[in-house]
Amino acid sequence: MDLAPNPDSPPSEDFMNTSPQAPSSSGAGASSSSSAPSPSRYESQKRRDWNTFGQYLKNHRPPLSLERCSGAHVLEFLRYLDQFGKTKVHTQMCPFYGHPNPPAPCPCPLRQAWGSLDALIGRLRAAYEENGGRPETNPFGARAVRLYLREVRDIQSKARGISYEKKKRKKPPSDGEQPPPAAGLA
User: Fold this and answer.
1) What is residue 30's DSSP assignment?
2) What is the number of structural domains in the chain?
3) What does the pLDDT profile of the chain (186 residues) look like in tens digits?
4) Which stretch of DSSP H or E encloses residue 154?
5) Domain assignment present for 87
6) Across the strands, what pairs with 87?
7) Which of 15, 42, 104, 111 is positioned for an S-S bond with 52, CB 3.0–4.6 A?
8) Where are the alpha helices (DSSP H) in 17-139?
9) Cis? peptide before 62, omega within 30° of 0
10) How far apart are the first and last CA of the chain?
11) Is residue 177 part of a domain?
12) Are the CB atoms for 54 and 4 separated by under 8 Å?
């Protein structure tokens, strides 16, 4: 089972950068126009995230193999990422706690936004399985990770005074029901 990060992809410094980037063309591969199409933005980000997580495991003390990685290590990684966050999360002691647009600066910490963490876990979960991992042993799908993401979402929602509404799916009309008549057709 090959669970090592893809060696063809260099680790990147812009781990949480989700801005679109033009594919770079360097070296001999740039001259062939019939090569495979460039990967999508999602695929590129997923590869960067996977390589960064692999680098994190390599730098972990003691170094960790992916096979020995658990949900607890994923949580440790997510907490490590908080130091690079750009989202102000007010503490309960802050006078701006619960205010979506605070009128002045405050000393509250910057953290990773819940949406960024949620998307990151989704990409890493997919990458784990694409790199030979079995779904039932996927540390990114661990219950502890799901609970942590829910807790982060709730804390950030309360700190900002804005709730995260789950997107409602449109239900197709069932066979027994008829859609309401259009206006003006009486």
Assistant:
1) G
2) 1
3) 444 444 444 434 444 444 434 444 444 444 445 577 888 999 999 999 999 999 999 999 988 888 899 999 999 999 999 999 998 888 889 998 888 888 888 888 889 999 999 999 999 999 999 998 899 999 999 999 999 999 999 999 888 866 666 666 777 666 555 555 555 544
4) helix 143-160
5) yes
6) 111
7) 15
8) 41-59, 71-81, 114-130
9) yes
10) 66
11) no
12) yes
Residue of 149, 116, 141 lying closest to 49 (CA atoms): 116
**Is 182 within the bounds of a domain?**
no
pTM over 0.90: no
Contact 117, 152 (CB under 8 A): yes
Looking up residue 117, the CATH number of its domain turns out to be 1.10.150
Burial 13-22 (b: 16+ CB within 10 A, else e): eebbeeeeee
